[in-house]
Amino acid sequence: MQFSNINYNLYKSFLVVYETQNISRAAELLYISQPAVSHNIKELEKQLGISLFYKKANGMSATSEAETLYKYISSAFNSIWKGENTISNMAGLKTGIVKIGSPSYISVMYLADVVTAFRQKYPNIKIEIVSRSVSELVGMLQTQNIDIMLDSSPIVTDKVKLEIKYLTSYSHCFVTSDKFYTDKALGIDSISSLPLIISSQNSEEIRILRNAVSDLKINPIIESWTSETMLELVKKGNGVGYVQEDYIREDLKNGTLKKLKTTFTTPKLDIYCGYFPDSLSNAPKKFVEFILARN
């Protein structure tokens, strides 16, 4: 790429004089004196080795060289002004994009509500949510293909500048329809004997449950890859589900699902975010501030 050594202000004076065809009017628009505008035009002519204008009774008239130059300079200045305007809008959050990496269950459990609240405050910010495996998301975070990553455990990378913040925790519970409901507190053996319906043996909530309640036998009669399908099967009397409690608050309230009591404590699922603070542009930085303020 080649760069000109000619002062930016010389071209600015040329552009306004060309469009107004008048030195005094150009001086008003540029907020400089008439002699300063005249000096800039003469200096530009000297550096380019051409004549740009000649005087006439009621102002200035452009030469053919000036007409050719104007096509390039006006295009360049329009690009500069558009760039400045775009950056200004991004700084004022009138535009921008936030790229978030999140496992799908966190997107459903946490991210949907947060993004909805954020967009109510900043409706012009575009949100892009990417769901991949944890290892893939870590790689995307390191290569800055995403701005922020969410996970249910502290995010581990070899990058020392990674900022990790705890966001919130979610309680899980066993739920069922009237068919399998009892008001008695059930122990590990009783829960193990029920027909369990879970999202997946490999899901994060089941992994955490296995680690916390090691004696619990999880042999599901149905595995479903979505919480929505799992809950529909539970409502239709197929068995007992294990689900995030806030997600079914309305179902518990209206009685379409019932929470089973247990003699053991079900573990909470923690949500963390990770990001490189030095790499965040204005919109992602504002999103991080927003979610941390909700803690």
Looking at this protein, list some descriptive labels:
295 residues; alpha/beta; Arc Repressor Mutant, subunit A; D-Maltodextrin-Binding Protein, domain 2; 3 domains; 9-stranded mixed sheet; two-stranded antiparallel ribbon; 11 strands; 19% strand
Q: Name the shape in a single word.
A: rod-shaped
CATH level-two architecture of the largest domain: 3-Layer(aba) Sandwich
What is the CATH T-level topology of the largest domain? D-Maltodextrin-Binding Protein, domain 2
- Uncertain segments are none
Distance between the termini: 48 Å
Describe this structure in words.
With 295 residues, this protein is of the alpha/beta class. It has 3 domains: 84 residues, Winged helix-like DNA-binding domain superfamily/Winged helix DNA-binding domain (Arc Repressor Mutant, subunit A), CATH 1.10.10.10; 95 residues, Periplasmic binding protein-like II (D-Maltodextrin-Binding Protein, domain 2, 3-Layer(aba) Sandwich); 101 residues, D-Maltodextrin-Binding Protein, domain 2. It is built from 11 helices and 11 strands. Strands 3, 4, 5, 6, 7, 8, 9, 10 and 11 form a 9-stranded mixed sheet that branches. The radius of gyration is 32 Å and the shape is rod-shaped. The protein starts with 7 loop residues before the first helix and ends with a helix. The mean pLDDT is 87.
